[in-house]
Amino acid sequence: MLVDVNGTPAWTYTGGRPFDPARPVVVFIHGAQHDHSVWILQSRYLAHHGHSVLAPDLPGHGRSMGPVLDSIETIARWLLALLDAMGVARAALVGHSMGALVALEAAARAPARVDRIALVGAAYPMKVSDVLLAAARSDEPRALDLINFWSHSTINPRPGWPAPGFSMFVQNRRVMERQRPGVLLNDFNACNEYAGGFAAADALACPALFVLGQRDAMAAPRQARELIDRCRASATAAGLPAPRRVEIEACGHAIMAERPDALLAALRDFLVAPVRA
Q1: To which H or E segment does residue 94 belong?
Q2: Owning domain of residue 22
């Protein structure tokens, strides 16, 4: 459905169910060069099992109108405005990659609005390699090939899918190709320039879950260590449960597609866990 956010229409998927802000709300935030469709399996399940779901296309992505937003901080403010537009007082945030940074920043900015956060394929700092940045500037098709190759593990023979008749790589490539020219470089710059991750972790006032791919070549699990440690210190100070860490074997950065059931199981357990330790 289309939702007016700050005067601009934004497309938001609700998991195939009417949105009801009175139910527990889960907001899914996609990563760079993606849209809401990467969350279809997880968002649809939760929407049919006791939750209300919002999976927006970020501005300038997918079906959402307006220009792309050029920083993690700006996207976080937009996300909170989306909650206002939908009449949501409090929600759980689930973000992948760039979306994980947005979830973290939004939770730090508006602790009264965020019940818990799940950071999928997260790393901080989230620096983009010079090779990938150069390709995003001057040869976007090559950049998409590099992302697609580095985002998937080697568990399945390429093009890979655990069922016949589908291609994980072609599907992800088509999602990326749907985005407008310039979106990729904008998103990469936002990740590269975000400097508030540790401060946001230090200010975190809700439970956190980290879901990482063991074979992630885009955001290796070791790149989340300090962020997890800081979230743990914040949780201890606030009397909250220590952040959960789930590392999925034989899985790359495209966790939602490569290991959808394992991700869903981690989210399902986390969303029903008590908030206080």
Answers
A1: strand 91-96
A2: 2-272
What CATH number is associated with residue 213? Answer: 3.40.50.1820
* 239 burial type by CB count under 10 A (0-12 exposed, 13-18 middle, 19+ buried): exposed
| pLDDT reported for residue 25 | 98
Total domain count, the chain: 1
Q: How many CA atoms lie within 13 A of 91 on its CB side?
A: 29
Enumerate the β-bridge partners of residue 52. Answer: 25
Measured CA to CA, the distance from residue 219 to residue 248 in angstroms comes to 13
For residue range 46-64, what is the model confidence (pLDDT) as tens digits?
999 999 999 999 999 999 9
Asked whether residue 188 is assigned to any structural domain, the reply reads yes
Residue 277 within any structural domain of the chain: no
Q: Does residue 61 fall inside a structural domain?
A: yes
Rounded to the nearest 5 degrees, what angle is found at the Cα of 197, between the Cα atoms of 5 and 96? 60
d(CA 16, CA 44): 6
**What HEC string does 113-176 produce?**
CEEEEEEECCCCCCCCCHHHHHHHHHCHHHHHHHHHHHHCCCCCCCCCCCCCCCCHHHHHHHHH
Cβ atoms within 10 Å of 163's Cβ, excluding its own = 6
